[in-house]
Structures are given as C-alpha cells and as structure tokens.
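Here is this case:
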Amino acid sequence: EVQLVESGGGLVTPGGSLRLSCVASGFTFGNYAMSWVRQAPGKGLERVSVISGGGSTSYRDSVKGRFTISKDNAKKMLYLQMNSLEPDDTAVYYCVKRLADFGNWWGPDFGSWGQGTQVTVAS
C-alpha cells in the first residue's frame, strides 16, 4: 500500500526557513514523479514544485529562488527546502506521488497524497 507521510511543518516568522520531508513507502520511489501541493486557508489547491523520476525540477513562479525540491531514492524521501518564507506561503503542504513519471510541471497530480503538514508564516 502506498503511504506518504509529511513532516517538518510549523510556525515560522517571515524570512524564516523550514524543510519539509515526506517518507514514502509501498512503491518503487524512483520510478515516479513527485510533487508538493499546498492549500492555503480558504483557498484552492496550488502546485508548488515537481520533481521527475530522473530528478528534473520545476516550481511555481512565486517560490522560485526560495524553495528547493529534492529527493533521495534510496531512502524513499522527498524534501522541500523553503527559505525566505512569506505569509502567503501559509498552507497545508501535501506530498504527492503521481501515477507515473509525469515529471513536467503541468503533469497531473492525480495519484497518492499524504495527510499534509501545516506551515504557518506569521509575525
């Protein structure tokens, strides 16, 4: 059974940093594209970053230069390093396993989702 468990969220002041982690199990991690998707309070889902099976990455414009997605295939871990956090980054962040190696930005996020981890950026 596919399992995705996020961690690393918390409360941080603007300009601070957090690193989110996602522990994956139940599938061959390196064969799939993974993404981070977030949902801010009262807002819809918003794709944050994508990493292909081969490690190519993409980001929404608002986080470029601030966030870095990475993974460790051997450990089956997905990461999102978030620097220079802004209040608009406040959201629940979800780790997503796509259905295949759909590694492009506009690939579908249909697949398996974790339970999410809350990130709050506030003064």
